Structure formats: C-alpha cells, structure tokens
Amino acid sequence: MLFISSPKEKPGQPRESAPEVSDLDLAERSATGDRLAFETIYRRHVNRVYGLCLRLTADPVAADTLTQDTFIKAWTSMGGYTGRGNLGGWLARIAVNLQRDQFRQLARREKLAEESGRLYEERQVHSGSVVPLLTAMDLDRGIAQLPAGARTVFVLSEVEGYAQREIAALMNVATGTVKAQLHRARRLLRDILSENKGIGS
Fold first, then answer.
1. Residue 176 CA to chain centroid, in angstroms?
2. pLDDT, tens digit, for every residue of 131-156?
C-alpha cells in the first residue's frame, strides 16, 4: 500500500534535494514499481497539486484528501504517462477528474434524495402523515440494507452513473438481469426508507 504524508504535516521542513532526473525518467521508473522515484515525483509536485486541490475544494481537509487520492491514482496509473505534456499538468488533470467525479456522484445522490423526498410528499398528501426530512445519510443507510446483488446494481447505476449495459459487462450478467435487479432495488429502497422514516404506504 502506498503511504503519502500530508503536505501540511511538516510545515517549514526544507525539501530534500532531488537527483537531477527528468520527470519522464522518474515516471518510467515509477511505472515499474520504483517507490523512491515516485517519492521524488511526490516531493517535486505535492505543493502545487495541493494548491490546486485547495482551490478546487475551498476546504483544507477536503484538499488534503483529494491530494492523497491524486497521488494514489497517479501511482497506479503511472504507466499511462507518455511524456506528452509536463508531469505536473498530468497530475493536475487527475486531480480535476477526481474532483469532477466526486461532484457528479454527490449531485446524483442529492438528486436521488430529492426524488425520494418527492415520493414521500406524495404519500403524505394521501395519508395525511407528517414526513420527516429525508437526508443523504438516510439514503446511504437505506442502500446499505439492500441485498448484495440489488445494492451493487443500484450503486453502479444511480450513484456511479453506469449504463445498464456497462453494469451487465462489469457483473458478467445479462442486461435483463441488471434491469430486473435495479427495479427490485428501487422498490426495496422505497420500502426501507418508508419504514425507517415511519411513513405509511
């Protein structure tokens, strides 16, 4: 496992002098599993990457996490760096893409929570019951209670945004099976959330 310290953990510490090796050479060595080469890449670029992450998130804690995720992703994907463009730009694209993916995932979760909330409001009209506010935490807890197969399909479709044919390929099942599991997951989730929130059918 790759362990990377936060750029803020040792303020004022002088940066170690790195050998006069190009980023491309270091990337090629890192792609073969050379951790010392990757540590040099980390020292060279971490401050700039962290600065970008801080601007993207406007949150020091989130920026720390995004910085760590960026270098972990870089470590596992270093073979994909071909030297076209500078390595700092390549790392920046990783950070931006990770942040974009996280934002899209959050947006999908919020949309799903809103849709579930509208469903409960409709039920309130018919039942006259008071509907507690549905939160993202409620949604996560409800998803966790789904059976494994239905939960996997639901998360891939509704949270991660995969198409049904892509899910079928990932799970090595027929598209019809994915569609059926997704329908089942949605029905079960409505029931779970209704029961947890004390909402009558």
1. 27
2. 445 566 777 788 888 888 888 888 77
